[in-house]
Structure formats: C-alpha cells, structure tokens
C-alpha cells in the first residue's frame, strides 16, 4: 500500500463490512459489552441497504421486530422502535398500520444506527487481512488495525449465468445494479430473468412505468410458476433458535437436502407482491383494455444469449415440453440471485481457511470459520452458513440471535440469553430427547 499506515490499535474484534449482519453485532456490542473493543469497517461512505435495488414499492419480507437487536435486547437504543421514536413518528407509524416496512425505511433505520455507532467506521474499506505474529492485521483505506478476532460480513456477490457474463453492460445487467443510475426503458423490449422477489420488484416497477413505458415486458422464471413465499405459521418455526439448533445437529447431506426442500420458505415472492401484480395486470389489460405488452412466462430456463446489433437474443428452454423459445430484447435484467465467495481482501488468508469446492467458506460451531491458525484467535462469518445453519442464515430473522451467539462466544460470557423454549413442533425424534 502506498499510503502511510497509522492507528495500529489492538481490537478485541474487527468486523469487515457493516451490512445489517455485522451492524447487528456492532449495535449489541456497543450497548451490552462496552468494555469490549470492537470496530467494524464498511467501504460505504453514505450508508444504504442494497442501494442498487432500492426501488419504489419494495418492502421487507420480514417483520420490523426482526431488526438489528430486538430479538435478544428489546431495550436496546438501536432498535427499530427507538429509531421511530427518535424521528418522532412512532404514532404515525402505528396509525399507518403497515403490514411490512418499506425497504427505504429499513435502509434509513440501518443508516441511522450505523452513523450513530462509534464502533462503525464508514467510508473505510478493508483492503487486506492477514495474520501476523499473534493478531489479525487489517489494512484499511484509513490505516491499519490489529485485532484478536475477526468477523467477516461482506455479504454475497451477484450471480449471473455464465453465458451472460461477457455481455454485461448498461443494457444487460444484474438486478443489484438497476437503481444505481437513471434508465430509460421507453419503447424498449425488456426481459427480466428470475422469478424471485427481486424479479417481482423489477417487474412491478417496469409495469408502472418507473423507467418509462416499455414496448414489451417479458418476465421469465425457471420455476414452475411465480411461487409464493411461504409465510405461514409452522413454516415460520424454521426461523427460530430452537429449530436452528436442531438443524445444526443433522448430517451434511440431510442439511443440504432440507435447505433445498425449504426453498420457498425463504426464496419465494410475498403473496402481497403477487396479488399486487395480478391486480395491476387485470386492471390495465383486462379492464382498461390496454394492448397486452406485459407477459409472465414461468417454467422457462434461460440457456443462451447473444448480442444482435444494439440488442440481444435470449434463448430459453421450456421446463415441461423442452421447447426452445427466442426473445429479442433491448434490455435484459438478470434477477438471478447471489452467491457466496471469499472477498478479495482475504486473499492472504485464503490458503489457511477451510473452503468448499466452490470457494465458499465452511462455517462451523458458533459461526466460526475453520482455519489453521491459533485456536484462541477466532474467525467468525455471517451470511455464510446456509447449509450449516439453515435457511434463516441469509435472512434478517435471526440476525440478532446470531450476533448474541457470537458475542457470548467471543467474550466468553453469557452476555445474552440465547436459549429458546421448545415450540409446538417436535423436530427431534422423541427418544433422542432428554426425559
Ligand atoms: C434486495 C434485497 C432485499 C432483501 N430483503 C430481505 C428481507 O426483506 N428480509 C430478509 O430477511 N432478508 C432480506 N434480504 C437478505 C439479507 O437480509 C440481506 O442480503 C442482508 O443485507 C445481508 O446482510 P449482510 O450484512 O450479510 O450483507 P450486505 O448487506 O451485502 O452488506 C455487506 C457490507 O459489506 C461491505 N463490504 C464489502 N466488502 C468490503 C470490504 N472489503 N471492506 C469494507 N466493507 C466491505 C459492503 O459495503 C456492505 O455494506 C434481502 C436481500 C436483498 C439483496
């Protein structure tokens, strides 16, 4: 690094990234373990939550009580309710009777917490992490730091089909970039690939003319239909500490099978968004009689794409008939999700970490990464253990609980009560339980 390094502080815990998951740890450490020196570094100067997908009419899939702290510390000053009170809109919020908070409001709540916390450094990317002598050494945009323990919270990176990678640009893009610049889809042929919540959010905005009125809009999904998120009561039991503890006891193959089977408990489209889309389509094309320029095409897997002149030709395969279909488009948006990967700044430690075949991290007990360094130096990771901890791991639902598990472990104290009474569902075989 060419810049002079300064401020070689010795921290108990250094966090790379301050997205909601590490921010939750920062918030709980600030209020409940003040003697513990932790610092979380995020490259974002102006804090925003998935800013590239912050579109109008987008909402949380989870309730606002599943905020940074409330699940384990309901009196914390960093709760969503504290945010509402501090902004003098508690009563108006109640009167609005919102069933879900907008992503814009939740993003602003996260920003408010991040900007208030002394243990969060914004505008401070981590460039390099290594283990030197008896500590982790972080080189950041504004100096270097030493830390006994590390928590990796850099999120996931967008995933695109391989055939689309070389074509990416302003007109062939991943959903996560759509709101990063102004766009004009007027009179354009627009194709959205991906039948999850992000695809739905983009479809509804395109339908409502957020980027101008397209000539045509095709929404393709590999799924057999535009599948709803299962938000029913017993499915929601998956998002509890009790279930998560049980899940970690299962063997690898069983856990992987269950994660696949539970897909729509975390990956579907909210019923409210589906109904909104259906009602708008009905009103526009059936009642008002607009020529039908918006089309929903489930059971289509995008299999190939080429550039043709200024635009693209996308090929799909039908999931039931095997038919190949062709879509000519001016704009193609891939709402095809995210994948885990080790961030570049961790390259010096790569050889020392246990990684899966796809390069993702292996997360063990207490959300720790297996590594070959001294065992008294812990390397934690959040949002990296879906096959270890289940479908709740990449979600907001249990983030406060996970933060409490990590803080209890790293401090060696029972700072938070992380126990959970068994719920109504008997997940474990009865004979395996204590009498
Ligand atoms: C559009 C969208 C909506 C979602 N909505 C919901 C929802 O409603 N409910 C739900 O339960 N889950 C939701 N999720 C899933 C999940 O809760 C979020 O993805 C969540 O943001 C994950 O938090 P994170 O902290 O792991 O990662 P991120 O939010 O991705 O944050 C990672 C942070 O790390 C920083 N960073 C990266 N590299 C470095 C570096 N080298 N140095 C410093 N900083 C770095 C980034 O700037 C970023 O701030 C949603 C996901 C998306 C994409």
TrEMBL record:
Keywords: FAD, Flavoprotein, Monooxygenase, NADP, Oxidoreductase. Its cofactor is FAD. Belongs to the lysine N(6)-hydroxylase/L-ornithine N(5)-oxygenase family. It comes from Kushneria sinocarnis. GO terms for molecular function: monooxygenase activity. Pathway: Siderophore biosynthesis. This is Lysine/ornithine N-monooxygenase.
